Amino acid sequence: MLHRHLKAWLIGLTLAAVVSDSMLLPFYPHFFATVFGVTNPQHVGLYLSASCLAVILALPLWARLVRRTGVLNLLVYTQVAAGALCLLCYWTDNLTWFWLISMAMLVFKASYLLIYPLILASEHPDRHGGTIGLLSVVVHLGGIAGAVLGGAVLQWFEPRQIFLVMAASDVLQTATCLYLLRSDSPTPAGPEARPDPTPPGTPPPPTVPFRLPLGLVMFAFYFSAYLIRPFFVRHWEHVSDHTHELVSGLVFAIPAGVAVLALWINLRRATPTPGTGIVPALVLAAAGLLVQGLDQPGYVLLGRVLFGWGLFQATVRLDQLMFALSTLERYAADYSTLNLFQQMGVLVAALTAGALVESFGLANPFVVGAAGLVVTAGAYMALVRPLLTLPTPDPARSPS
């Protein structure tokens, strides 16, 4: 069992990293237009796709390296490198160099994603639902803080100063890792931190070949959900006639606020069986996307609420299912594999969003995203739900 003191610090590390990474997400069109004079929507989509590709390529490498170093030792070095590259992003005024430096920065920042499987590997499976929900809310809260902080910086300061805030966050994360390594709190390196109670000589239980079918569902889900992200602020400003970046950041963050309420309600209910409630959550999120695409501010706000509730429930239940089908020693590897599908979905969404906006207007990604979530629900029913009837390993006991 992960020490409560260490778990709180690890969650705090995750929050700091998410806030840092979220500051520019709603505002990349503004950033490129203001700093580099680039207004082409496809350029924004291409940049976001390249960002996802950097994470896709980096995370499996960090997952391999962490077996030798441990998560906290690895983070000390990667966050120092990320902070230095943030400073270079602030100083450069050349678009090509900005691309190269920021991609390298994201490669090092991707290492913090390994905190997630570390926490889950050290928790009892009965607590996975609540822990996944808590971590999901932490990500959403980080999204709120990041969007508001990013909007405030863009409103009152020079846009590139966002990278100074990012560098400060990396310094804070590095200092936290050093403190934890030098403190008396146990600092597990990975799944091996919890002893395996399986008696010696016990044959391994059958495993379920879930990675590809669940990965395809994850790809479709993240593609559909993230399709509206790059240009949501532009859509909101178009339908509401409000161009205040701080207000736009708050509207962008509404689903994150809904996620906090959803976690509070979920914690007062019995932990759901893995796989339950996924289809209704996807359908509700699809309805929220359609409502957001309407040309009225009130409908956009209502759609953000519906979308936020469905998005949170679907995310938590899909992640819970991932760890339920995996085994203890495979947590980091399986998470890395499925994260690849998730990031690929975000990558393709960013590329597609730019093309859709340029060809069909700002409202089109909402329609395509809603259709994609309905397709995701069908893919889950056809590809993943049948796996739940097969004998599954006990993740707390089974070896890989």
How would you concisely characterize the structure shown here?
The protein is an all-alpha fold.
Structure description:
The protein is mainly alpha-helical. It has one domain: Growth Hormone, Chain: A. It has 16 helices and no strands. It has helices at residues 4-22, 28-36, 41-69, 71-91, 95-109, 115-121, 128-156, 162-182, 211-226, 232-240, 245-252, 254-266, 278-292, 297-325, 331-360, 364-384. It starts with a helix and ends in a 16-residue tail after the last helix. The model is unreliable at 189-206 and 392-400 (pLDDT under 50).
Please tell me the CATH architecture by its name: Up-down Bundle
What low-confidence regions span 5 or more consecutive residues with pLDDT below 50? 189-206, 392-400
Shape designation? globular
Please, how many domains?
Answer: 1
CATH class: Mainly Alpha
Tell me the major beta sheet: none
- How far is the N terminus from the C terminus? 20 Å
Any idea what the radius of gyration is?
A: 21 Å
Mean pLDDT, all residues:
77
CATH superfamily: MFS general substrate transporter like domains
The tally of beta strands, per DSSP, is 0
How many helical elements?
16
Relative strand content:
under 5%
Q: From the helix content, strand content and strand pairing, which structural class follows? A: mainly alpha
| SSE run | HHHHHHHHHHHHHHHH
Helix content: over 70%
Kindly identify the CATH topology. Growth Hormone, Chain: A
